[in-house]
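hey so i finally got around to running the thing on that chain from the lab meeting. sorry it took forever, my laptop kept dying and i had to restart like 3 times. anyway pasting the input first so we r on the same page abt which one it is
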Amino acid sequence: MEKYHIVVPPNTSAQLGQLLLQLADDVLDAVNKTLEVYHISESKLSLLLLFVAASHHPKSLQPSEIAEKLGIRRASVTKQLIWMEKHQFITRTISREDQRMINVSITEEGYQLLAQVMPHYWQTCAELSNKLTNEETILLLTLLKKIHKSHR
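ok and heres what got predicted. didnt touch it at all, straight out
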């Protein structure tokens, strides 16, 4: 019977952490189900959104910077960049200043995809909390932001 205790959360903080992990999986599944109609995943959407944010800055993002910002391996970024370039959602060009560097930017097709996807994405995000009252939603949002901020 003692072996069973190793799988039971030892306290409410551990129980909350476990629930957050399970919830993260559920959220990712819901978002990916919404996005599969567009043949992209949440990670590809995050990548496109990163390029939109970067387009407001004069400097292009390098694959190593992308990997760091998204918290994924550089090899995963490279694979996704190849797929996105093949589908004309991004362009990759060699830097004029340093030929070892590759600049990545979103294309008009990438913006068009986002224009189609984002309303459905936001709807899916909103539906995740549809069983909560407005007050509960605001409270949960505040608490989750506090947790998120403490882990950055």
